[in-house]
Amino acid sequence: MSIVVRDVHEHELDSVLALNNAAGPAILPLDAKRLQYFYECAEYFRVAERDGMLTGFLVGMGDAADHDSSNFRWFRERHSEFFYIDRIVVASRRRGGGVGRAFYADAQSYAELRYPQMACEVLLQGSIDPVLLFHGTFGFHEVGQQVMEETGLRASMLMKPLCSYPWISQTYGRDLPDAPWIHTPRTLRLDSARKAGGRA
């Protein structure tokens, strides 16, 4: 069956938490409080569904977010106007089945309407070549490395230009067309704030 990517529902947070904390050392652990923060504040928080089961999730936010991640701060200190992927998790039984690619395609479709570039990081531990190759096929390239103050782990800091953004920005500015694939209930609030002059 096909992969469906959609906004997360609050009653699914326990399942999302279990997915995150079963993902292994490449994903930092979460607790319920931190996950609730993402639910309330993250600009992009979507899950993937396949055969009626949750198979993963992706959390992302814009550069103006109130986010305390040292990796997010690293990007904000060096770059402006970007969409940051805080984490992407795919259930182990579904890895290699296209869920990650579906998430990145959906996240880019969202981000390129609003930001000129995307940012994320890859933890440099364990067998990372498949992860770096995966990101490379999506056009990400390393812009630096940093040791995370929270964990002491080294991360490769990756960015990708979003080539459609300049045309979209020049053509529509902040007045994006009113279409369901552009505005979800979660993003309506943020897009309204941008139109009012803020960058929520």
UniProtKB/TrEMBL annotation:
Q: Which PROSITE patterns match?
A: GNAT (PS51186)
The answer to whether keyword Transferase applies is: yes
Q: Which domain of life is it from?
A: Bacteria
> Which UniProt key words apply to this protein?
Transferase
Q: Does Ribosomal protein appear among the keywords? A: no
Q: Tell me which residues make up the N-acetyltransferase domain.
A: 3-164
Looking up SUPFAM superfamilies in the UniProt record yields: Acyl-CoA N-acyltransferases (Nat)
Quote one Gene Ontology molecular function term: acyltransferase activity, transferring groups other than amino-acyl groups
- Name of the protein this chain belongs to: GNAT family N-acetyltransferase
Give the species.
Cognatilysobacter lacus
